[in-house]
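[Discussion] Sanity-checking designs against the backbone

I'm trying to build intuition for which residues belong where. Below is a structure token string of 428 positions. I'd appreciate it if someone posts a full sequence so I can compare it with mine line by line.
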């Protein structure tokens, strides 16, 4: 069950211990991932097939599925499940299409006009985790904003099932997104394949998608080794629930377990102002955990999680901001009052009737979010993630008369005569 701490009793070293997660103190993960990246860079498709046999237990003759195979798998999906995926697709699309905004041009001084225009990143790679849970929702969360942004090429990698195919639900999402090929590659080797390119897997300009610690480490290393960028560090999932005496213990327990069942390295944290609530949540966790199909996985994550009892909601929010959770749920009657106190969080869920799983699947917001404290400096995936903003400027003759002397002076004080000359020759 959850280990419990009192906020007022915590020393700085205790905070540091509680805030640290998904670390690699012995650098064993980094060493393994570095070796995988180099093997894929050197041996391409051969390495990918070898790693698929080693890690997924599948011998592949071909590293991808095409249009006909995707269609056949999608056809196995029942109409109820199709409809649920279609509604999720529509809601995600509706939310993200509002993010396309044209910025106005600004005349910074007479005759000097500046503006920005978005351009889609041409080739993007989407990593869709497999493992113990297949995540078609992640494909929608990444594919929809990529389509809205207008990316020219969308490369999808996902590890194969035991039969060498992909899940029918993922196939149906590929059809919704009009993507006609999926590469049967998972783990750190998929990240390396998209970063360097192989005979089969195209090289991309930016890589998106969550994963385990190996995938996350591969993304961080690739960003330093190549000219390929990444969306963010998005590793094992986490949730922090802020609650008070108005919270329903069963709701809180369900929200904690919803994250815990992702994987044994997930983390679920309860920060509340009522110690009695902690006891009630502990009891509810035991009851709900007993009937979960993924109980063994969730139990390991809960064992790695904890509760903190605070005197006030201000203390609770202070801890939340230090933790910088991927998902922040505020289960209080006056949740709106606490919104202004939120500084660091990936995605926020307000009130007793807003479970985090709604955002995971179908409310419309994106579930690809920064983890491990990176919400202090990263945002979740959006349409902006799939574009770059190019700045433009146009200066008239009048504008150069106004601005030129300023540039000449600044260039001179920095000792850059050629910069000054580029202006002076025009003014003359």
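Best answer:
Here's mine. Compare freely.
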């Amino acid at each position: 069950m959850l280990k419990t701490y009192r906020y007022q009793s915590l020393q700085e070293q205790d905070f540091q211990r509680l805030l640290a997660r998904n670390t690699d103190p012995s650098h064993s993960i980094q060493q393994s991932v570095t070796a995988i990246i180099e093997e894929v860079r050197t041996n391409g498709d051969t390495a990918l097939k070898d790693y698929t046999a080693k890690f997924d237990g599948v011998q592949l003759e071909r590293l991808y599925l095409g249009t006909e195979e995707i269609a056949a798998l999608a056809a196995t999906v029942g109409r109820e499940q199709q409809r649920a995926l279609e509604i999720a697709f529509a809601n995600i699309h509706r939310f993200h299409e509002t993010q396309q905004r044209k910025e106005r041009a600004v005349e910074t001084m007479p005759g000097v006009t500046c503006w920005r225009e978005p351009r889609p990143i041409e080739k993007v790679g989407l990593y869709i985790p497999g493992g113990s849970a297949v995540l078609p929702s992640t494909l929608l969360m990444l594919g929809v904003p990529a389509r809205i942004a207008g990316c020219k090429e969308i490369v999808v990698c996902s590890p194969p099932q035991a039969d060498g195919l992909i899940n029918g639900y993922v196939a149906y999402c590929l059809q919704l997104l009009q993507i006609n090929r999926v590469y049967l590659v998972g783990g750190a080797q998929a990240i390396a394949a998209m970063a360097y390119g192989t005979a089969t897997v195209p090289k991309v300009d930016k890589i998106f998608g969550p994963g385990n610690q190996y995938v996350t480490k591969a993304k961080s290393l690739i960003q330093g080794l190549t000219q390929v960028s990444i969306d963010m560090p998005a590793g094992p999932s986490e949730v922090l629930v802020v609650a008070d005496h108005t919270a329903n213990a069963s709701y809180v327990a369900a929200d904690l377990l919803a994250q815990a069942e992702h994987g044994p390295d997930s983390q679920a944290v309860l920060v509340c102002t009522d110690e009695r609530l902690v006891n009630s949540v502990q009891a509810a966790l035991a009851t709900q955990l007993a009937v979960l199909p993924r109980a063994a996985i969730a139990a390991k994550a809960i064992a790695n999680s904890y509760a903190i009892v605070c005197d006030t909601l201000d203390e609770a929010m202070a801890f939340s901001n230090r933790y910088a959770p991927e998902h922040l749920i505020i289960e209080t009657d006056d949740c709106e009052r606490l919104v202004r106190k939120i500084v660091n969080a990936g995605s926020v869920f307000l009130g007793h009737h807003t479970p985090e799983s709604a955002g995971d699947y179908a409310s419309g917001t994106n579930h690809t979010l920064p983890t491990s404290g990176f919400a202090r400096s990263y945002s979740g995936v959006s349409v902006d993630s799939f574009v770059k903003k190019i700045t433009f400027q146009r200066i008239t003759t009048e504008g150069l008369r106004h601005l030129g002397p300023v540039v000449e002076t600044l260039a001179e004080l920095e000792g850059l005569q050629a910069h000054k000359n580029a202006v002076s020759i025009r003014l003359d």
